[in-house]
Amino acid sequence: MATASIPAMKKLFFSLYFVFGFSFIVFGQSKLDPGKFTKFTGIEKPVNLKSGEKLLCIFNLECDDCQATASLLKDMKKTNKSIPSVYVLFYKEGDTTPEKFGQITGTNFPNALLSVDDFFNVIGDYPPRIYYLKDGVIKGTWDNDFAKHLKETFPAK
Fold first, then answer.
1. Considering the domain 31-153, what is its CATH architecture?
2. Where do the structural domains in the chain lie, given as residue ranges?
3. 3-class SS at 82?
């Protein structure tokens, strides 16, 4: 009976650990901690996401769907004042900056950059994602049909 060498076993163990650990980060159940994010560009004071109603968007700066969703939010907020304040957490992997994203979309939402770990912890399957927060409790998590969700959740007054 042949046995594997200790170095080969270690290599196999670390390979499996990496694969399963990465899979947990990407595919595992994760929970947004609204209290973790308090500093946003465009606002001098810390933001308390655990107070009041807020929309927290998770966008990749290079993502066309994220850019379209930001533009949609901007347009819907113009016509529906019951939609709460919007905050954005960006993941940056290319050359687009938050400023360039704002120019492309015509938006100026307070924003912060996410680490890769935080991004995969809060994004779900793929961007964009919008969280509806009420006093720090997640009342909605939306990955598509954003206009429909916004209209249903925040009827125009």
1. 3-Layer(aba) Sandwich (3.40)
2. 1-30, 31-153
3. coil
Task: Examine the pLDDT at 9 and tell me if it is beyond 50.
Answer: no
3-state secondary structure (DSSP) of residue 121: helix
Question: Cα 93–70–78 angle (5° rounding)?
Answer: 160
Cα separation, 108 vs 99, in Å, equals: 8
This prediction's pTM: 0.79
Chain centroid to Cα 157, Å, comes to: 28
* 27-57 confidence digits (pLDDT tens): 444 478 888 889 999 888 999 999 999 999 9
Q: Evaluate if residue 114 carries a pLDDT over 70.
A: yes
DSSP reduced 3-state for 74: helix
Which element (helix H / strand E) includes 131?
Answer: strand 129-134
Place of tokens 């290599």: 11
